[in-house]
Amino acid sequence: MRAVLMAGGSGTRLRPLTCDLPKPMVPILNRPIAEHIINLLKRHNINEVIATLHYLPDALRDYFQDGADFGVQMTYAVEEDQPLGTAGCVKNIAELLDETFLVISGDSITDFDLTGAIEFHKQQKSKATLILTRVPNPIEFGVVITDSYGRINRFLEKPSTSEIFSDTVNTGTYILEPEVLDYLPENTESDFSSFLFPLLLAKGEPMYGYIAKGYWCDVGHLDAYRESQYDALERKVKLDVAYNEVSPGLWVGQNTYIDQSAKIEPPVVIGDNCRIGARVQIEAGSVVGDNVTIGADASLKRPIVWNGAILGDEAHLSACVIARGTRVDRRAHVLEGAVVGSLSTVGEEAQISPFVRVWPSKKIESGATLNLNLIWGNTAQRNLFGQRGVQGLANIDITPEFAVKLGAAYGSTLKPGSKVTVSRDQRNISRMVTRSLIAGLMSVGIDIQNLDATAIPITRTVIPTMGVAGGIHVRVHPDRADYILIEFMDDKGINLSKPKEKKIEGAFFKEDMRRALIHEVGDVAYPSQVADIYCMAFEKFLHIDTIRNSRAKVVIDYVYAVSGAVLPQMLDQFGADAVVLNASLNKSAMSATNREGLLTQLGHVVEALKANFGIQVSANGEQLILVDESGMPIRGEILTALMVDMVLTSHPRGAVVVPVHASSAVEQIARRHDGKVIRTKANPTALMEACNKNPNVMLGGSGDTGFIFPELHPGFDAMFCIAKIIEMLTIQERSLASVRSELPRVIHKTYTVRCPWTVKGALMRYLVETHPAQNLELIDGVKICQPYDDSWILVLPDASEPLVHLYINSNDRDWVDSTLRDYRARVQMFIEREEEAVVAEV
C-alpha cells in the first residue's frame, strides 16, 4: 500500500520555529515529525511514501532524499504556484494512486494501529475511512458522529462551543479508494473535510470512521509542541528514540561528554557530540539536540534545545524552546513558554520573559529584558558551492572568519578524529585562507595532514595513500585573479558529490557544528616525501625506456605560478631534456593579457631551440596549452581532439570521457579506432566521477578543463599529460603538427546570451517542448541533434552567472552559421517575451 504524506504546511502557529523550516521538519526528540510518521508507516508495512510539498520543499527533500536511509521509497509532489488544499494536493497525484491508499498528516504525533484501520476499511467495503480519536476539547478539530457499525452520519469542521455534538474527532488520517478522487476538480484548491467528505456523504457513498486507540497529538501550536515532547519522554506514545538508553529514562547520543559533576534527572534526551559542563543541572523533561555545548553551572528545567545551540555558563532555561544554532550567553535567562528562533543570540545576563517569541537571526543585547515579541527580519543566505567548489572574492567573500566557519562545518560532517589533507597554491591569500580552514577543522576534532604549497595533481595522488577522509585545496581561481577557489575532495581524491556538498552547506548555514574539548582538538602533521609518492605513481604508468630513447626536448612555461615543480627533474631522470621558463614564484596572479604574451614568447623559444613542443602550465598544475614545433598554440577543442586521437591510437577500443559541449570530432576519431565516447555534464566533478565509474576509460576531460588519466589519479594533471605526450609521440613516430593535420575538420562555434535566472528554466522547457524528443539529449542543458549526422546545437545555462551559452557543431560551415543566427534570435526573442510578461504582471 502507498501512503500520501501531506507535508506542505507552513505551520504559522508554530512560528518562529517554522520561519525557516516546514512544519513536518520540526523536531520531536531531535528527529523531524515526518520521520516519526515514516517510522509508524514502516511498522505497519507501508514502505512507499509520496510526500506532497509546498512550503520550503527542499528542507524535507534534502533530509529524506529517496528514502533508502529510512527504509522506505520516497517520491515527492510539489505544489509550485499555489497551495491546493488537503484534497487538491492528493488529486494532483491521482495517476500514482491506482489502488487503496492511506493519507496521513505530516504534523501530528501518533502511534495508532494503522493495520487495524486498513482491515476495518476492507471489511466494511468502505470508499473512505477516517481514522478518528476521542479528545477532551474538540473545538480545534473536525467533529464526527458514526452509527453502531462505524458508518459516518454527520461531521462538522472545527465547530464552535455551541455546535459540539461529539468528542470524536478527525485526525487527518484517511484510507481511501482511488475512485473517490474522481469527485475532485483538477488543479483547484479543495479540502477533504470541507469539500470531499460532505460530498461523499451527500452522494451516499460508503464512508466509515475507525475510532483508534492510542496516542495522537496535533502539533498545531507551541504549547502542543512542548507537550508532545514531554509525553514522548514519559512513554505515553510509542516513538523510536535515535540514541541508546544508557540508564532508565536517559538517552544519550554518540561522542557526548557529560562532566561527572553534572546532575541529570530522567527522563532526558541528550543528542550526539554534546558537551555538558561541570555542575550542570538538567531536570526531567529536557530535550537536548545534537552538537550542543552547555557551560558550567547552567540550569535546564524542561527546555527543548535544538541542534547546534551553545549555552553559556550559568545560563537558565525553563520550559522554553531554543532553536538550532542559537547562542544563550552567560547568566542569561529564557523563561517558561518563550521561543528563540534559529541563529539568534541572547546576550549575557539578558532575560526573555515568559511566552515571548524571538524570530530567527536576532540579537538580544547583554543585560536587556525582552517583554515583547521580536519579529523576524529577512536574512540573506547564498549557496556555498557553485559549479566547482566554494568560490568568491578574495578577502571580501572568502575571509578568515568565513574560512574558519567553513572548516568547522566540513569537519562536523566527518567523524571526530578523522584526518583531512589540506594543500594550496603559493599565494599569500591562499596561505591565509588555508590556515583559517585548518583552525576550523581542528576546533571540531579533525586532524590535519598539511601538504602546504603543492600542485593539485600531487594532492589527488597522495590522498588515497594517506588513510584520510578527504582533502581541501585552496588556490587563486584559474579564470579570475581576484577570486579564491576552495575545492573539497573525497577519500579517492575526487571532488565531493552534490549530496556531500549539501551536508556541508547544511552544517554551515544552520551552524550545526560540534565543539571539541581541549584534549580533543585536532593535530597538524606535515608529511614528508609527498612528491616522492607522486613520482613513484607517475613512473609506474609510463614507458620510461620509450621516453629515455626519445631524446625529446620540451619547453615548459610555468607562468610564475607553480607549486611542486617536480616534472623537470623527472624528465631529466628519464633522459628527456626539459627547458623551464618563468619558474620563479610570483605572489600576484598573472593577467590574461600577460599570459598570452608569455605564450607567444614560448612559441619563439620552441622554434629557436628546435624543441619537439612547448607547454604552458596553469591552474596549479591542472591545465595546459600546447605549442607545436612550429610555435603554433594548440588549445580548446583542437587540443581535446588531439589528445583523444593520440590516446585512442595507443589504446584502440578504449573509452574517453568528454563534457557535453565538446566537438563531435571526438566521436569521429573514436569511430576510426573502434573506441567509445562518454559525454557528461559540463562540470569537473561529473568528468571525474565518470572516469572513475566507467570501465576501460583511458582519458577524460577537455582542453578547457585539463585531462584526466584515471590509472594515475582521478583529477586533471598537466604534468603527467606532458610525459604521456612524449611517450605517445615517440611510440607513434609522429609530431604534434602531423597529428593536428590528421584531425577531422569540424566547425565548432560558441555564443553567449545574457539570460535572467528566472527565465532559464522556462527557456529550457520551451526548447524541449518545441523539438521532437528523439532529437534531444538532456545530459546538461538541451542538445538538439540532427538525425544521422554529427551536427548539433547545445543550449547550456551557465551555472554561476545569468548567462546561457550556445554551442554549435557540424562539418558544414553554412549550417553552423545559419543555425547560430536562428537560435540566437530564437533565444533572445523568448527571453524578451518572458521579461515583458513579468513587467506586465507587475
UniProtKB/TrEMBL annotation:
Any GO MF annotation of the entry: structural constituent of carboxysome shell
Domain of life of the source: Bacteria
Species, as recorded: Dulcicalothrix desertica PCC 7102
Protein name as it appears in the record: Mannose-1-phosphate guanylyltransferase
The entry's keywords: Cytoplasm, Initiation factor, Nucleotidyltransferase, Phosphoprotein, Protein biosynthesis, Transferase
Family affiliation: Belongs to the phosphohexose mutase family.
Sequence ranges assigned to domain Alpha-D-phosphohexomutase alpha/beta/alpha in this UniProt record: 383-513, 534-631, 636-743
Signal sequence segment: none
Domain Nucleotidyl transferase positions: 3-233
GO biological process: carbohydrate metabolic process
CC annotations in GO: carboxysome
Subcellular location: Cytoplasm, Cytosol
